[in-house]
Amino acid sequence: MKITVFGATGGTGTELVRQALDADHQVTAVVRDPARLEIGERTGLDVVTADVMDPESIEPTVAGRDAVVFAIGARGRGPTTVAQDAANSIVTAMRGASVRRFVVVSAAGIHTTGDDPVTRFVAKPILNAVLRHPFADMKVMETVVRGSGLDWTLVCPPRLTDGKRTGTVHRNTRRNVRGRFSISRADLADCLLATITDDSLVRQQVSVAGGIW
Predict the structure, then answer these.
(1) 139, 134, 109: which is closest to 124 by C-alpha?
(2) Of 29, 42, 120, 147, which one has the fewest beta carbons inside 10 Å?
């Protein structure tokens, strides 16, 4: 496949690029600072420096691709619109290039369906208070994606860790994965690659979590 990754220098994005290349996919990593992409030169990798907020600048990076993956998020806890602004720009670029498959990393923390009472009424309110600004941005980003008209999938993980790839990912399209509170970035990247070609997840929100029951 030909895949474009936005947010490639983040933990999840870098892992996704690495796994996609290992699987012999062709990857375009769109970055602001190429030096921050800690992968090095690899066959099949094209690193492009572009402003994600400029649709005209990024349209060539998505043209002719089989899928676009969004792994962009705010780095701090202050007021931000980075996710929603980036999503609007990428959607515009994808429409211009007639590319439809859009896999987007969101967060399980902004959803409560299926949560146990302690998580829903104790843990989540605390989490949403601490991360209220990036979560508010992510909620708007989801609205942008849902209204894009593209073949989108929203992938919502809980807390991300730097653990190893286990190959065990629990997912649910109706509610959050109950009793699972983290997933490694390596497992999330593995899940994202699988999601790209899973037609049953087109225009679906899927919650994912790692670990063995």
Answers:
(1) 109
(2) 147
